[in-house]
Amino acid sequence: MRSHLRAGIAIHNAGNHHAAHDAWEERWLESDGDDERFLHGLIQFTAAIHHARERNWTGATGLADSASDYLAALPSPYRGVDVAAVRAFLAALRADPERIERAPPLALTHEDRELTLTDLDFDASTITAAVFAENSDYDETMIERAVGYARADLDDGRPTSPFVTLVLDFARGENRGIVHQRLAEHTERRRAREHDVDGLFEV
Q1: What is the C-alpha end-to-end distance of the chain, expressed in Å?
Q2: Which one, 32, 43, 48, 54, has least CB within 10 Å?
Q3: Is 121 helix (H, G, I), strand (E, B) or coil?
Q4: 53, 44, 58: which is closest to 87 by C-alpha?
Q5: Single pTM value for the model
Q6: Domains and CATH numbers, the chain
Q7: CA 197 to centroid of chain Cα atoms
């Protein structure tokens, strides 16, 4: 839960409100009780902002209302998130959805810190990388494979391997297009080496 929560918060804070829900959705579908209400509320919170930015005022106010209902009974903070601040923002958005054009949306905090993409550890960054690959014109399969290679390198005690570095760079948005190309090249070379090694043992 923690890594997915932090990934979605950082994605939202980076301005990718619609994409943020992809970091939370799987955990939301698996959860129940307060966790289910919490994640459902956050997903609808980001959706309300997305609709407001699209000037869909009816959709924005409806989602702000339902998000408020999901979050209403939760303590604040909940799982490190200032739920009271989220509820206050939703109430203001519901009353005046056009406020989104006059002021930026609420930035979410986790454990009193306003998270950015560079604040995320490796596990949360891999979630972020998958979300950006899914929501943009990037090769999701290649990114998934690159993440696997990065994890293997970390397990082998190689925290500065090209895969670890490039996966983090891709997740953090540092020249993402160029990084994607470099990851593709490294991944193809590594797959070719693995294929060559496997061929040595074929009869």
Answers
A1: 46
A2: 32
A3: coil
A4: 44
A5: 0.91
A6: 2-118 (1.10.3450.10), 121-200 (no CATH)
A7: 36
Q: Which H helix or E strand runs over 110? A: strand 109-110
Among residues 68, 99, 100, the alpha carbon closest in space to that of 85 is found at 68
Q: Which residues contact 161 (CB under 8 A, 6 or more apart)?
A: 150, 153, 154
Across the range 121-148, mean pLDDT stands at 95
CA distances from 25 to 18, 21, 28, 55, 120 (A): 12, 6, 5, 24, 19
175-184 confidence digits (pLDDT tens): 999 999 999 9
Q: Token pair for residue 23?
A: 């970091």
156 has which bridge partners? none
8 Å CB contact between 122 and 164: yes
- Is the Cβ–Cβ distance between 1 and 27 less than 8 Å? yes
- 23-43 pLDDT per residue, tens: 999 899 999 999 999 999 999
Measure the CA–CA gap between 5 and 131, rounded to whole angstroms.
13
Using CA atoms of 127, 132, 133, 136 in order, give the dihedral in degrees to the nearest 10: 160
